[in-house]
Each structure stands twice: as structure tokens, then as C-alpha cells.
């Protein structure tokens, strides 16, 4: 509860700072809208030429896309600062400042920034889901919405956990941004059904970097095209497990940082 | 208050060969050398002391302060601050300490200092009444009223540093670490900050550890200094004692109004001062002397009596020169 209140304090301070740069704020949110819209148009163009993608209809693919976009928005809005742990905190020595404060460093790092681009991402995600869901030819009600919300939250947590895990390498190598962004690239595969990829890639996206659980498996709970209905329900468990592993690794990195410094 | 016993910190440094080839080789095979940043130091600092912690760059000052504040885990030895082992209970320790790093800010760049203070109130859980009282008192002392609502990015360095000090003292810390707090500031800003430090120490009994290259900071604030070099303590004790025994050379330069074939030392100074010849300048008279034998005023008076002088400059005693000298004497 204390940390929730404290987060609100950080949040309002960040918001005020952002208002100092209103134009930046707008450009950020709009550019994400633009980027996302073009990539959805791309999906649309593909489906103008084919009717189904290995059995998946346009709206089913959109549904997967929407879950990924919304989950990503959670990560982008709240946890964006993980990207700059190396460049803005460790390399500059500002991480020492964080360690001098009587609050957990991870909390401090996260609370230090909110990224308004996440709002653009969220808007796109919700719009896409709004277009896709009525066309899924299945009854949709309150319970479905609730389950979807839980799955999207889990999707966001997985994005967060993966980025936290790879950001932590910065404690040893000063700036792990290249590793983070390379891994993050993989997540664009999960805008589409995993079944269209070969075995190797599917294995990686399920067992190694579980981005599959950020969109495809959750979608399978509602749209079952490959017998992954039950697997989809595991998404929250996968999310929690990923967060635990990432957080454990973060703690390990912190300890190592304390013994070497930079 | 602060107890340090046999404290050491060794870093492992990868040894690389020169050039691109060496860099590539370094990717696969690395040899490590160990650097003793801090090597078996011990000291005790009582509550309410102001201690100058000095030494050249890379002597181990920052490493020590990082260990005292819990950022770094020592390789060996014991540290106790307020009865807490900092690296084991870093957050608990953090509640009771404050810090100003001259090169780094804890204020939010885009916002007015007041916003940063408000956030610090929540971070350190400062009761509202105490927060208001401290903020009021400290802004008074540092004359910050007019700056509280201006975005930090628009403040001058001196203004920023003053705001920085409020941030460090706001939560009534028992110990404050000041790392080069007056670096790059003008004389007025320096003196305002020094008097603030003095006041906080006297009124609140704050223990202060100050690292600086500015001799005047030390002279005005500290009764005790600890000199560190190569990770080891060279001297720990009274400031005046060390100054008297090591700072024996004062140097004064006179620029004379006319060029002279030969500049003679005034008779009354004979044997008391040493003439330092300067190349190329036939109108310069540079003298060095020991302040216990003769005062600077006497030297100046004697020279003025014999020559028409255009300018006088007194070389500032450098803390580095003391360290150098102690080192050479093998103290």
C-alpha cells in the first residue's frame, strides 16, 4: 500500500515533467499510433490476397495481434525505464543515487519514468480487439472480458519479465541494451499465430523466450485452431514464473554490482 | 557513530593488450589484475564530528564512501554506521544518511525543486510538520525562496547546488557524505554552502564527512582530517597539527613596477626567506618562507618598503602538496 501511494507520487511528478514538453508527449503517442496502424494495414493487405492463413481468418489474426499490442502497452507505459538501466543509470553512475534511497532499487527505477508512447500502443490494442472480437463467431460476455483482461495482464507481465531479465545483464556488462533489443525483436513473431512457424522457432518462443504466451496461447483460449486451448489457461502461471525468475536474477545482479561497482 | 575496522576493497581489473587485436583477444582470454582501492583502513568518527577525507584522485575516497553508504560490499573488514552494517541493511542505513555528490544531482531536472522535495518527503516518510519546518528553515538559511518554483534546468550551478543541499538534509540524516560539494562554484556560493554545513552540524549535530580538493572547505569546516593515498591512511588527526608540520612553505610573488638588472632580497628578510628565481621575468620577485619564522604581512611590508610593487600574489597551499609531502617523508 505504501508503495502504491509512493508510485502515485512518482507518477504525478513524472506527469508534471511531461507536461513541460507537451509536444513531445503528443508526437510520442501519435508516432506509435502511426507505426502500429501501418503494421495492421500490412496484415490487412496480406489478407486481401489470401482468405485464411493456415486456417486462421483475418479477424482471428487481428485478435492475436490485439492481445500482443495491449500486453505490450502495459510494459511500455510502466516499465520503459528498464531499457535505459545501462545507459542512463549504470554507465553514468546514477544507479548509486538510487542505491542511496531507502526504497527498493527496482521500484525506484521503474517509478522514475512513465512512457506516454504506451498510451498510443494501448489505444491501438483496444481498437484492434474491438474490431476483432465481434467477428470471432463466438458468444462474448462479461466472463470472457474478465478472462481476456487477466490474460492480457499476464501477457504484459511476460514482456516485463523478459526485459527485466535481459536488462539485468547491465550489472555485469554496463549496458545490455543490444541484448535486450535483439530479444525484443523476437516478440514481433507473436503478432501472428505460432502455428505458421517451424518447430524450432515455436520451441524458442514457447520454452526459451516465452513470447508465445504474450498473444498466441492466450488467444487460443478463445479461438482454438491447433489444440492449444488448455495451454492458453497456463498463461498466468507462466507469467508469474517468468517474473519470479527475472526478479531472482535481478537480485543476483544487484549483489554482483555491489561487489564490483563501476 | 561510524566505525571502520580493517576495511579493504579490491577490484578485479581485466588486463587488455593494446590495439584492436588486443581488444579482440580480450574477448576470449582475459588476465585479471587486482587493484587495492582501499587497503586495510581503520578509523572511528564520533557523532557530530566534521571530518575532511582527502587524497588525490583515485586514492580510494569514493570507494570508502560507497562502502560507508552501503553501495559497495567490502572485500574484507568491518563497517558500522549508526549501529548498522550498511551493505547488509542498505535501505535501513539509507534512511539515516544523506549525500551530496558535486557531480550528480538528486533533483528532477524538469521540475521545480519543491516537487523534488515533496517526493523526497514521501520516499523518506518525513512527517508533514517536520518536513514543513525543515524546508522553511533550510530555504531561509540558503536563501532559496525565490528558486523553489523554478524548474531545476533553468537554475545556475550555484543555485542548483544550494537546492541539492536541502535535498540531502531534509530528512534529518545522522550522517551526511559530501563529495566535492563546492566544485565549480563561485566564492559567494561556496561561502553560503560552507556556512550552511556549519549550521547544520552545530544545530542538528549532523556528522559530516567531506571529501574535497578545496583547501578552504577543509580549513573552514573541519577540525580533523583523514588523508588517504593508494588506499591507505597516511594521516588521521588534527588539521592544524598537520598544517604546521607539513605546510611550511608559503610562497609570495611580487610583480615590480620596473625591470631590474638584479633583484636583491631586502636586508631585514635575509636568512628568513628563500629567493625563488623565475625564468625570463626580470621584474618578478618570488619568495618562500616558513609561517612560523616570519608572517606573510612582514614579508610584504619589507618588500613594499624597498620596491615599487605593481601586484602581489600569494600561492594557495594545495592539499595535494601536503599529501605529496607526507608521502615523500614516508609518514
Return the average pLDDT of chain B rounded to an integer.
86
Helix-strand sequence of chain B: EHEEHEHEHHHEHEHEEHEEEHEH
Low-confidence stretches of chain A: none
Q: What is the largest interface, and how many residues per chain?
A: A-B, 24 and 32 residues
The H/E string of chain A reads HHHHHHHHHHHHHH
Poorly predicted runs of chain B: none
Number of strands of chain B: 13
How would you name the oligomeric state of the polypeptide chains in this document?
A: heterodimer
Number of strands of chain A: 0
CA-to-CA gap between the ends of chain A? 34 Å
User: Strand pairing plus helix content of chain B: what structural class?
Assistant: alpha/beta
Strand content of chain B: 25-35%
What is the makeup of the main sheet of chain B? Answer: 6 strands, mixed
Radius of gyration of chain A: 19 Å
Overall 3D shape of chain A: globular
Which class of the largest domain in chain B in CATH terms?
Alpha Beta
| Mean pLDDT over all positions of chain A | 90
Q: Beta-strand level of the residues of chain A, as a percent range?
A: under 5%
What is the count of distinct domains of chain A? 1
GO molecular function (chain B): ATP binding; ATP hydrolysis activity
Domain ABC transporter (chain B): 22-255
Pfam families (chain B): ABC_tran
Protein name (chain B): Sugar ABC transporter ATP-binding protein
Amino acid at each position: 500500500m505504501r508503495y502504491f501511494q509512493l508510485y502515485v507520487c512518482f507518477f504525478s511528478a513524472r506527469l508534471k515533467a511531461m507536461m513541460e514538453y507537451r509536444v513531445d508527449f503528443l508526437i510520442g503517442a501519435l508516432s506509435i499510433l502511426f507505426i502500429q496502424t501501418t503494421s495492421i494495414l500490412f496484415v490487412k493487405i496480406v489478407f486481401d490476397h489470401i482468405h485464411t492463413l493456415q486456417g486462421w481468418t483475418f479477424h482471428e489474426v487481428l485478435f492475436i495481434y490485439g492481445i500482443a499490442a495491449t500486453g505490450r502497452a502495459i510494459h511500455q507505459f510502466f516499465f520503459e525505464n528498464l531499457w535505459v538501466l545501462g545507459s542512463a543509470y549504470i554507465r553514468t553512475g546514477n544507479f548509486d543515487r538510487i542505491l542511496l534511497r531507502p526504497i527498493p532499487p527496482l521500484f525506484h527505477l521503474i517509478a522514475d519514468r512513465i512512457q506516454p508512447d504506451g498510451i498510443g500502443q494501448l489505444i491501438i490494442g483496444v481498437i484492434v480487439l474491438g474490431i476483432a472480437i465481434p467477428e470471432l463467431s463466438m458468444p462474448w460476455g462479461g466472463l470472457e472480458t474478465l478472462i481476456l483482461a487477466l490474460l492480457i495482464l499476464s501477457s504484459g507481465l511476460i514482456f516485463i519479465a523478459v526485459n527485466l531479465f535481459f536488462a539485468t545483464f547491465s550489472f555485469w556488462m554496463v549496458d545490455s541494451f543490444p541484448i535486450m533489443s535483439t530479444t525484443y525483436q523476437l516478440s514481433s513473431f507473436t503478432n501472428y499465430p505460432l502455428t505458421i512457424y517451424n518447430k524450432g522457432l515455436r520451441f524458442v518462443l514457447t520454452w526459451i523466450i516465452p513470447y508465445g504466451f504474450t498473444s498466441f496461447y492466450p488467444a487460443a483460449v478463445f479461438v482454438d485452431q491447433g489444440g492449444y486451448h488448455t495451454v492458453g489457461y497456463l498463461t498466468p502461471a507462466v507469467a508469474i514464473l517468468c517474473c519470479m525468475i527475472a526478479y531472482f536474477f535481478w537480485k543476483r545482479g544487484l549483489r554482483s554490482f555491489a561487489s564490483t561497482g563501476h | 557513530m561510524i566505525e571502520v575496522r580493517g576495511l579493504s576493497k579490491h577490484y578485479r581489473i581485466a588486463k587488455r593488450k593494446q590495439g584492436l587485436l588486443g581488444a579482440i583477444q580480450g574477448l576470449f582470454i582475459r588476465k585479471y589484475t587486482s587493484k587495492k582501492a582501499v587497503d586495510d583502513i581503520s578509523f572511528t568518527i564520533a557523532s557530530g564530528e566534521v571530518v575532511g577525507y582527502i587524497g588525490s584522485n583515485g586514492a580510494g575516497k569514493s570507494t570508502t564512501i560507497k562502502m560507508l553508504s552501503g553501495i559497495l560490499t567490502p572485500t574484507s573488514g568491518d563497517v558500522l554506521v549508526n549501529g548498522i552494517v550498511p551493505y547488509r541493511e542498505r535501505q535501513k542505513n539509507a534512511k539515516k544518511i544523506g549525500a551530496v555528490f558535486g557531480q550528480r544531482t538528486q533533483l528532477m531536472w524538469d521540475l521545480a525543486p519543491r516537487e523534488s522535495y515533496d517526493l523526497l518527503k514521501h520516499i523518506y516518510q518525513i512527517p508533514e510538520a517536520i518536513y514543513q519546518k525543515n524546508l522553511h528553515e533550510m530555504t531561509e538559511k540558503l536563501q532559496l525562496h525565490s528558486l523553489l518554483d523554478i524548474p531545476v534546468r533553468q537554475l545556475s550551478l550555484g543555485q542548483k547546488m544550494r537546492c541539492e543541499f536541502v535535498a540531502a538534509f531534509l530528512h534529518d540524516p545522522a550522517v551526511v557524505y559530501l563529495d566535492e560539494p563546492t566544485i565549480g562554484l563561485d566564492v559567494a556560493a561556496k561561502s553560503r554552502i560552507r556556512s550552511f554545513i556549519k549550521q547544520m552540524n552545530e544545530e542538528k549535530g549532523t556528522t559530516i564527512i567531506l571529501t574535497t580538493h578545496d583547501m578552504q572547505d577543509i580549513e573552514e569546516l573541519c577540525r580533523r582530517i583523514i588523508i588517504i593515498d593508494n588506499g591507505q591512511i597516511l594521516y588521521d588527526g588534527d588539521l592544524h597539527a598537520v598544517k604546521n608540520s607539513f605546510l611550511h612553505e608559503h610562497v609570495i610573488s611580487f610583480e615590480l613596477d620596473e625591470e631590474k638588472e638584479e633583484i636583491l632580497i631586502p636586508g631585514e628578510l635575509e636568512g628568513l626567506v628563500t629567493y625563488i628565481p623565475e625564468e625570463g621575468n626580470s621584474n618578478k620577485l618570488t619568495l618562500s618562507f616558513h609561517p612560523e619564522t616570519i608572517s606573510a604581512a612582514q614579508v610584504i611590508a619589507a618588500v613594499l618598503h624597498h620596491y615599487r610593487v605593481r601586484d602581489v600574489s600569494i600561492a594557495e597551499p594545495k592539499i595535494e602538496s601536503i599529501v605529496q609531502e607526507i608521502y615523500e617523508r614516508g609518514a
